[in-house]
Design a protein that fits this description.
elongated, alpha+beta, about 40% strand, about 425 residues
């Protein structure tokens, strides 16, 4: 028992034979006065600490009977015997000493300090318990490497995030803006340290330009450790044609028309031009930069006018369909539309269709009235007067008159008869 409990000199810390004899005498005197107590027990807890921080080791005694408490390092060297520190390492400091507790702090913890530390209690029989110090090491560096500094819309780019020299191995997470993405990680071990590299494949679009890609570390030794790179994406122009004059009105003969073409892209479009689809541009059309002006519209101007813009990535266009109305036109036309794209198509409403529908309805109503009129004419009644009765059977005109007079006399006779 004495051989196990005997503390040794602090190796590599200045301990040697001159300090061993006083300590041995102290241990022998302590062993001579250790009472034989029953029910003694030691309590301690494991310690996890970040490299460079402070670790606190506590050896506590339940049901203390004033037995001697001792703390030893992983090499079984005595750090503290009661409140005496034989080990010449000033990083160990006494925090508390009593009959029931020995508490010691270790400052500026390093990987070499990791291991088991022993609490001993000089009872009969002696008691011993150990606590484990675990040292966490945060990543030394966190770096994002991007395959291409500038990408083109539609390309797939590769990003790599590396967390170097951590313990334990770190977990890397990816985010594009607020959306989490999935990468593929590889772990390399060097001695007691781990280097983790995560690869992310990302297909970029124009909406990704200027968006941050974030590499974030999950590690027990550090919080909120992250780095980011902003995406730079080039894309071909977005083109739009707008009508400045007339504002949402009829494009009538003799009146002016002004169109403006706007284009946005990365890089900014440097080449912009107007053309007339499937026909030549009228000579009286004036093109000034992004503007197109027709000062005196006529029906020969009808057609589709296209604005094209290009940059280093590609070319896009937007179309405008022009329909010129008579000066007497009062019906508001549909708003002219311009639609961007490589296959831009413009559809406008032809108001002649509306007039044709109205004409058909009016014609149908007139036909119905004519049919009703003929129907009523066929059912109209006919009659003959009493004076004409018998005239159809007379041989000549005189006889017809006599027959008619006779008819009148007969009538009078009938009237006298009834009277």
């Amino acid at each position: 028992m004495a051989g196990r409990a005997q503390p040794s000199g602090p190796a590599g810390s200045g301990g040697g034979a001159p300090g061993l004899l006083p300590l041995l005498l102290l241990l022998l005197s302590a062993a001579a006065i250790i009472p034989r107590g029953d029910g003694q027990n030691l309590v301690t807890e494991d310690v996890t600490v970040v490299e460079g921080d402070v670790a606190t080791i506590s050896c506590r005694v339940k049901n203390s009977d004033d037995s001697v408490i001792q703390l030893l390092n992983p090499n079984r060297q005595t750090i503290y015997f009661r409140d005496f520190r034989p080990l010449k390492d000033s990083r160990f400091q006494l925090v508390n000493f009593s009959n029931s507790e020995l508490r010691v702090s270790l400052t500026n913890v390093s990987i070499s300090d990791e291991g088991r530390y022993f609490c001993q209690l000089y009872t009969d029989p002696p008691q011993e318990i150990y606590t484990t110090i675990t040292v966490l090491v945060p990543p030394r560096n966190l770096v994002i490497d991007i395959q291409k500094e500038t990408a083109v819309e539609g390309e797939e780019i590769e990003l790599n995030c590396t967390a170097m020299a951590s313990r334990p191995a770190t977990t890397i997470r990816w985010f594009k803006g607020n959306k989490e993405l999935t990468g593929k990680s590889e772990v390399e071990q060097w001695s007691d340290m781990y280097t983790v590299t995560s690869q992310l494949l990302l297909k970029v679009g124009r909406e990704d330009d200027g968006v941050p890609v974030i590499c974030l570390v999950d590690h027990p030794a550090v919080k909120d450790l992250q780095t980011q790179r902003y995406l730079e994406v080039m894309y071909k122009p977005q083109v739009r044609v707008s009508q400045n004059y007339p504002l949402q009105g009829l494009t009538r003969e003799g009146e002016p028309l002004e169109l403006t073409c706007t284009a946005f892209g990365k890089p900014q479009p440097t080449d912009m031009r107007w053309l007339r689809v499937d026909d030549e541009m009228p000579q009286h059309v004036v093109v000034s930069g992004s503007n197109l002006l027709i000062s005196n519209l006529n029906k020969t101007d009808n057609g589709t006018y296209r604005c094209e813009a290009s940059n280093a990535v590609g070319k896009s266009h937007a179309d405008y369909m022009l329909f010129v109305y008579d000066t007497t036109a009062t019906t508001e036309p549909a708003v002219h539309d311009s639609r961007a794209g490589e296959e831009g198509v413009i559809r406008s409403v032809d108001h002649a269709v509306v007039g044709g529908v109205v004409a058909v309805v009016v014609f149908a109503m007139l036909c119905l009235l004519i049919i009703l009129g003929r129907y009523f004419a066929r059912h109209k009644g006919t009659y003959f007067t009493h004076e004409a009765k018998g005239a159809d059977d007379a041989a000549d005109a005189d006889t017809a008159i006599i027959n008619a007079e006779g008819g009148q006399n007969n009538s009078e006779e009938k009237k006298e008869y009834f009277i």
